């Protein structure tokens, strides 16, 4: 039986294991979040950030709690995860100068009370607005440039812990480093156990830098066992999550409740959201996409239709049976914590519309449906969830994946007006065609199904179409 969270904590729904529940009701986690540095960057005003998310009905964010810091200028000129002199992590500063990103080195034998006060306030402010926080303990270090910025690097702490290469970070090979990693997790879990709005994730991209998969799995196993043993002695038990990669697969491990994916396809070693829905749905666990191509860095306003790209991947995944979605968003910056801007307003509105569309159904009774939408008369990607014979949600879009990394879609604009071949149970249905960008109803018609296959003609649209089918 999959390890679920305590009552009161965000947990797997008892009505449908593909979804989550919080505070007595089912919840879809939908957001566009900053680059995970909201706590470790003292300049970032997370209250203003939360107010923006809540204003659009978004309810999810993700943080790295201090073991991974991004070098200055690596992804963007300004980045929440590149705090430089404003870096604050669980370890206190020493009196010894020389930290690579500015200021004194860290003392791994002393915790910083200011950091934990900030972390707890962050979690409390999030919960006041109904926002769930996914805390990811570690990330692969992505090379020496990144590794030198981690407080666990030998030149960043006065103990000299972390005297190894960056590939070793995600293994048990360096005992002093592993001891500090486990102390770090134990401290974070102990300090945050009282919060209901938190999910613990172990490692993002654990083998992206060619770390041996078996060694990475053994290292993650050690962390999982530690957290379970620790929470068995604490008041609350939380959901545990781990990213799905080639060679790192916890889909059938009952200790891990949430299957984490990133991007839209098979991107390097990372398994994307829709491939995971196709191959892991039968494990009866919630599946999420918690990272996409980085808005403002990989995706730039002058070369990409960013709102359309975000809409394609978020709607496709969530209307395909996903439990949570996060668009990685560089519009939220220390200089602009509310993310104000034309592009971001469109991104957030698209996600708000997605939530409204899904919540117009009794979605907790629905599951991924490979059968109902047989084909379209023109090429299209179609995803469906349904409660067969009662309600169907469909999303159709026209795009092709970015070829080099398979990490996002290129929109392929129309016009389109396909005929759909559907396989619905016999009966009478109301079919509503909706424009996802605006939630405008394009057309509504009645359809009677007498046989196994029924054809319906769609109204004309430019790129994507949502369809709501309800039995009369």
SSE topology sketch:
Layout (H helix, E strand, L loop, with lengths): L10 E2 L7 E3 L2 E3 L1 E3 L14 H10 L4 E4 L27 E7 L6 E8 L1 H16 L3 E8 L4 H4 L27 H18 L5 E7 L8 H19 L8 E4 L14 E4 L4 E2 L2 E2 L1 H8 L6 E3 L16 H13 L5 E3 L15 H18 L7 E2 L4 E4 L4 E7 L3 E7 L1 E3 L7 E3 L7 E4 L4 E9 L4 E10 L4 E4 L6 E8 L1
Parallel strand pairs: 4-15, 5-8, 8-9, 9-10, 10-11, 11-14, 14-15
Antiparallel strand pairs: 1-2, 2-3, 6-7, 12-13, 16-18, 17-22, 18-19, 19-26, 20-21, 22-25, 23-24, 23-26
Task: Give a verbal description of the structure.
- The structure is a single chain.
- The chain has 472 residues and is of the alpha/beta class.
- It has 2 domains: 354 residues, Glycosidases (TIM Barrel); 103 residues, Immunoglobulin-like (Sandwich).
- The chain has an 8-stranded parallel sheet with strand order 4-15-14-11-10-9-8-5. It has a 6-stranded antiparallel sheet with strand order 16-18-19-26-23-24, with helices on one face.
- The protein is globular and about 75 Å long.
- The two termini are 38 Å apart.
- The mean pLDDT is 97.
């Amino acid at each position: 039986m999959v390890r679920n969270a305590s009552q009161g904590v965000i947990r797997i729904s008892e009505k449908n294991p593909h979804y989550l529940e919080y505070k007595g009701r089912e919840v879809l986690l939908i957001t566009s979040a900053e680059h995970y540095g909201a706590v470790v960057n003292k300049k970032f005003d997370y209250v203003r950030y939360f107010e923006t998310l809540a204003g659009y009905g978004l309810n999810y964010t993700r943080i790295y709690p201090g073991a991974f810091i991004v070098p200055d200028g690596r992804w963007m000129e300004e980045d929440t995860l590149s705090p430089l002199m404003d870096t604050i992590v669980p370890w206190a500063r020493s009196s010894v100068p020389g930290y690579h990103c500015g200021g004194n080195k860290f003392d791994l034998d002393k915790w910083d009370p200011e950091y934990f006060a900030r972390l707890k306030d962050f979690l409390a402010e999030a919960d006041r607005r109904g926002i769930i926080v996914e805390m990811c303990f570690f990330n692969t270090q992505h090379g020496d440039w990144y590794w030198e910025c981690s407080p666990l690097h030998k030149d960043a702490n006065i103990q000299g812990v972390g005297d190894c290469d960056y590939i070793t970070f995600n293994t048990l090979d360096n005992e002093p480093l592993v001891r500090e990693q486990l102390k770090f997790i134990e401290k974070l879990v102990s300090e945050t156990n009282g919060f209901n709005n938190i999910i613990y994730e172990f490692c993002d991209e654990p083998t992206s830098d060619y770390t041996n998969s078996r060694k990475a799995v053994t290292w993650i196993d050690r962390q999982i066992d530690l957290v379970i043993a620790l929470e068995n002695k604490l008041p609350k038990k939380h959901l545990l999550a781990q990213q799905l990669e080639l060679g790192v697969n916890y889909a059938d491990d009952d200790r891990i409740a949430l299957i984490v994916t990133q991007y839209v396809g098979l991107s390097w070693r990372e398994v994307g959201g829709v491939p995971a829905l196709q191959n892991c749905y039968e494990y009866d666990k919630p599946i999420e996409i918690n990272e996409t191509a980085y808005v403002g860095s990989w995706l730039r306003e002058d070369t990409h239709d960013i709102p359309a790209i975000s809409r394609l991947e978020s709607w496709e995944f969530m209307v395909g049976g996903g439990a949570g979605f996060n668009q990685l968003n560089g519009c939220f910056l220390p200089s602009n914590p509310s993310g104000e801007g034309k592009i971001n307003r469109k991104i957030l509105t698209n996600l708000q519309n997605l939530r409204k569309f899904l919540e117009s159904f009794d979605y907790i009774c629905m599951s991924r449906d490979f059968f109902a939408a047989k084909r379209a008369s023109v090429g299209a990607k179609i995803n469906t969830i349904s409660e067969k014979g009662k309600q169907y949600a469909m999303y159709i879009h026209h795009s092709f994946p970015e070829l080099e990394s398979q990490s996002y879609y290129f929109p392929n604009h129309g016009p389109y007006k396909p005929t759909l071949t559907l396989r619905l149970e016999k009966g009478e249905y109301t079919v509503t065609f909706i424009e996802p960008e605006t939630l405008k109803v394009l057309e509504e018609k009645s359809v009677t199904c007498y046989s196994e296959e029924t054809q319906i003609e769609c109204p004309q649209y430019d790129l994507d179409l949502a369809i709501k089918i309800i039995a009369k």
